[in-house]
Amino acid sequence: MLQTRFTKLVGVEHPIVQGGMQWVGRAELVAAVANAGALGFITALTQPTPEDLRKEIARCRALTDKPFGVNLTILPAIKPPPYAEYRAAIIESGIKVVETAGNKPQEHVDEFRKHGVKVVHKCTSVRHALSAERMGVDAISIDGFECAGHPGEDDTPGLILIPAAANKIKIPMIASGGFADARGLVAALALGADGINMGTRFMATKESPIHQLIKEKIVANDERETELIFRTMRNTSRVAKNEISTRVVAMEKEGAKFEDIRELVAGARGKMVYATGNSDEGIWSAGQVQGLIQDIPSCAELISRIVREAEAIIRNRLEGMIVQPQREAAE
Known about the structure:
Elements: H1 5-10, E1 16-18, H2 27-35, E2 39-43, H3 50-63, E3 69-74, H4 83-92, E4 97-102, H5 106-114, E5 118-123, H6 126-135, E6 139-143, H7 158-168, E7 173-176, H8 182-191, E8 196-198, H9 200-203, H10 212-220, E9 226-229, E10 237-240, H11 243-253, H12 258-261, H13 267-276, H14 299-318
Parallel strand pairs: 1-2, 1-8, 2-3, 3-4, 4-5, 5-6, 6-7, 7-8
Antiparallel strand pairs: 9-10
Helix pairs in contact: 2-3, 3-4, 8-14
C-alpha cells in the first residue's frame, strides 16, 4: 500500500483521485472509485440545481460507505449559477472534502473550512497554487499543460510544473494532467507530488456514465487527438479532436470572436456526445493521455492495477538500479 500526506489528509487507501468532470462526475462513477479505495468527486454543476446535487450525493451514499467529495468550479459567467446554494447543499449533506477550481474561491474556502470541510484547490501555475495556499486550502491539485479542460495560459507541462510547485508548496499536492497508469503515479511521487488526479482515464472505465462509443473512441485515439480551442481568447481549453474542434480552431485563426463560435461550442451539444456516442456532435474534453489508454476496465481493476504495478516499479525496477560500488580488491 502506498501511503502519502494526501491519503492521510482525506482518509483514503490509495493516492489516486478522480477529479470533477462536467457531465461525467456522477454517483455511479464516484462510488466505484471510492469503493476501490481512491477519492472520487461528484461534479456539482453537472446537477441542474442545488436540490439535484443533494439527491446525487444521497444516491452516491447509497452506493458506497467510503469517503468521496464534490467538485465546485467557479467560472466567469453572464448569469452565474447560485454558488452559495450549491455550497450549502455540499455542507448540509455532510461532505468532508471539496475540490474547488476556477476563480479565486476565498469565500467558499472560508465557509467550507468553518464547517470542517477539507478543500483541495485545482490550479495551473505555481503562483496560483501559492495564492491558494495563503488562502487556507488544505491541498493543491496542480494541472499540467497535457490535461483535458483548462490548462491555463503558461503552457507548462507536468514534468516542469510538478517539481516547480513541490519546491514551494508546503501543503499536500496531487499532480493532474497526463496520468493513466502506474508509471505516471511513480513519476509524480518522484517529482514531489503526494498522489495523482485522473480524468480522461476514468472516463474510459466500465462505471463511467458516458456512451460506450466515446469510451472506445478514447481507447482508439492517440496522444495527438486533441485540440486547443479558445487560444485567441486567452481561455484555452484542451478538447478531443473532432470535426467541430478543428473547425473552431480554424475559425479562431481567421479572427473569429466568441459570438461567432458560440453555437458550435455550446455545452448542450457536448452533453449530447456522451449521450448519443456521436463524437462529432459537440465539443468534449479529453487529454493527451488518450495515447496511454488501451482498455476499459472497472474502476476497481484500474486502481488495483495501478497500485500493484507502482509498488512493483518501486521495489523491483528502481531498487534494482541501485548497485553498491564494489570495494577495490586489496593489493
